[in-house]
TrEMBL record:
Pathway: Pyrimidine metabolism; UMP biosynthesis via de novo pathway; UMP from orotate: step 1/2. The keyword Transit peptide does not apply. Coiled coil: none annotated. The gene is pyrE. It comes from Micromonospora tarensis. This is Orotate phosphoribosyltransferase. Homodimer. It is an enzyme of class 2 (transferase). It comes from the Bacteria.
Length: 179
């Protein structure tokens, strides 16, 4: 099996949790995809980075990140997967709100102004979190080249409606789940 198939197995084995849950969008579901069980796993995290780098290989960007917390391990997996290939890829974290102390930055990490960046998220249902990150990135002067998620729960239309290219490594159908 290759990276894509291996990561799908980690997701179905570790991250898919059955039972009634309320999503961040407010919607209810009979299952939940808890991707932090994968993005923070010692064997799966490197796969996340390689799969998403491969999925976006035709896009030009030099920094990756999104709204904390879902995007943080995704961005770091991509940063670490890029390093052995010689690719210089920075990561950043977008806060939900600016800090009231210190440097009062909303985006932590290397500067994003004037750079081509990729917005990431682990999974997205409405696109709300990743679009919040996109707004902050644009306000900071970054050029957002697109959005990529590990698992799409339905956010693609909203992201594309915002004028951004959108890709997902897996759909719910790929994971044997129904919306």
């Amino acid at each position: 099996m290759g990276d894509h198939d291996d990561l799908r197995k980690f997701i179905t084995d570790l991250a898919v949790v059955h039972g009634r849950v309320v999503l961040s969008s407010g919607r209810e579901a009979d299952w939940y995809v808890d991707l932090r069980r994968v993005t923070l796993h010692h064997q799966a995290a490197p796969l996340v980075g390689r799969v998403l780098l491969d999925l976006t290989a035709d896009w030009e960007y030099d920094a990756v990140g999104g709204l904390t917390l879902g995007a943080d391990p995704v961005a770091l997996s991509m940063l670490h997967a890029a390093a052995p290939t010689g690719r210089a890829l920075d990561a950043f974290v977008v806060r939900k709100a600016g800090k009231a102390h210190g440097l009062q930055r909303r985006i932590e990490g290397p500067e994003v102004a004037g750079r081509r960046v990729l917005a990431v998220e682990d999974t997205s249902t409405t696109g709300g979190s990743v679009l919040t990150a996109v707004e902050a990135l644009r306000e900071a002067g970054a050029e957002v080249v697109g959005v990529v998620v590990i698992v799409d729960r339905g956010a693609g239309d909203a992201v594309r409606a915002a004028g951004l290219p959108y890709r997902a490594a897996y759909t719910l159908a790929d994971l044997g789940l129904v919306a």
